[in-house]
Design a protein that fits this description.
Layout lengths: L12 H8 L12 H12 L1 H8 L10 H6 L1 H4 L8 H5 L8 E8 L2 E8 L3 H7 L8 E7 L15 H13 L8 E7 L1 H7 L18 H13 L6
Parallel strand pairs: 3-4
Antiparallel strand pairs: 1-2
Helix pairs in contact: 1-2
Pfam family, one: G-alpha
Organism: Thanatephorus cucumeris (strain AG1-IB / isolate 7/3/14) (Lettuce bottom rot fungus)
GO molecular function, one term: GTP binding
Amino acid sequence: MPALDLQLQPQNDARRGIVMALPGQMETDSLPPDVADSLFNLWQDPGVREAVRRSREFQLNDSATYYFNSLERMSSGAYLPTDQDILRSRVKTTGITETTFRVGELTYKLFDVGGQRSERKKWIHCFENVTALVFLVSLSEYDQMLYEDESVNRMQEALTLFDSICNSRWFVKTSIILFLNKIDLFAEKLPHSPMGDYFPDYTGERGLETDLRTLHLRDRHPTDQM
């Protein structure tokens, strides 16, 4: 937080110490009471709230707010993870993960690959004969920087990678599907983090409704200009 020029309230310094002393992974069925209390009170601290609001300035999982807001439920002794709790958790993809499933008479093989720079060389040449490629882009990352290189915008990196895939000799005969997700987080960010601040060539009006309307119309009426 000092890097953001933010401070905790004095009574929360000890609570910060409890949280910072935790191991990277806890093998417990529920949060210990002192940890749950520390997390809950830290989340009420104005400094922490402001840090999360400015999360584009550092590396923070975009599900952090969801979990902070669910602390009371998740710290209960009777807590069981919901579908949303599981879906919003994140495990970094490394290497190539294969999933096989059937729909009717058809068998599908789905390969999940890591998008980080260090992972690409492991898979880019492996899929010459795939039927389709689904390229996922997080819309909410338009104002964030890469974990590997904090001088590079994540959305710009995704555009560069998408361009290289579309023009790669390995995917000449492959159908490519562009999937834009996390539009809810995108909508939350736009009022205080305008798209034009990060993409100067964006000439649309500044504002949430305009940016979302542009995406909606492009989705319903795609053109070659996209």
